[in-house]
Structure formats: structure tokens, C-alpha cells
Prior knowledge:
The chain is α/β, with parallel strands linked by helices. It has 5 helices and 5 strands; from the N terminus they run H-E-H-E-H-E-H-E-E-H.
Amino acid sequence: MCLxxxxxxxxxxxxxxxxxxxxxxxxxxxxxxxxxxxxxxFSLEGKPPENLxxxxxxxxxxxxxxxxxRASFSAMEQLYKKYGQDGLVxxxxxxxxxxxxxEEFLKKNPVSFPVVRDANKQLVVQVNIASMPSSFVLDSxxxxxxxxxxxxxxxxxxxxxxxxxxxxKIDSQQAKK
Length: 177
């Protein structure tokens, strides 16, 4: 079997596996208002931030083989650079089966926010993502403020900006009280 056919077959099996996981888990997907799981409770490769309380957080699930993930990854870096000093934390959760695929992607697409890998798929099973990429915007109490399934370029980035600015404004107003 030629290399192209093996790769196509591998990608098909991987996509079918992810689709099966998504279908089986769709009924219990996290919703707005739900508490997001504590990242430190999972066997993630890499070091997630320990205390996210009091911060506006985006947890972004991605994989190197996902085309829309490439575009969203760049957007996450832009958001982090724009709002990081105001209190935004971005944590990217990689779902690649092989660490080397993630590392190769990161060489070509370096970022300044934390990246972890869910090699055992424990977190992704608990969170039950609906599509790739999927991201969760969390408020300062660690609750899901919004869920983004997929990435539609500038429109999605504008939604992130509006949500982040709203949450940062709420946090700023609460701090003044």
C-alpha cells in the first residue's frame, strides 16, 4: 500500500473514531453554566495552569490534522496577545495520538500560551466535544460562558473578542465593589 493510501486510511480511521466518540457523548456535552473540569485532575502531558479561578479562560481542543484548527490556533494566539495582560488565559488541549505530530505543528505554529496533550483522551471524553476545533470560554468562576464548535474565521474571532471583553468588564466591575 502506498504512503498516501496508508495516510488516508489512517486519517479515516481517526476521524471515524472521533466521530463515534462525539456521537456517543453528544447527550452529555458541557453546556453554558456548567462547571468546567479541573485540568489538573487529568493526566495531561505538559503543565496546565494550576489556578484558573478569577481568570477568563479559553480551553481550546485541537489536533494537528484538523484544517480549521490551524486557523483557530492563530486566532487564539492573537487573542492571548491582545487580552492576556488583562486577565485572559488560553489553554490549548491537543488530541493528536502521537506527540511528534503535535510537536511538529508547534514548530511551525509557535504560541506563547500553555499547550497540553490529552494522550489518554480522559478530558476529551469527560468534556464531550462536538467537533474540531472546539473551545470553551470560561468565566472567572470556572463556569462555561460559551461553547464554540468549529471555527469560521473572522466571525468566530469577533465572537471571542466580544465575549472576552464582556467577561473582563464584569470582572473589573466586581473588583471595584
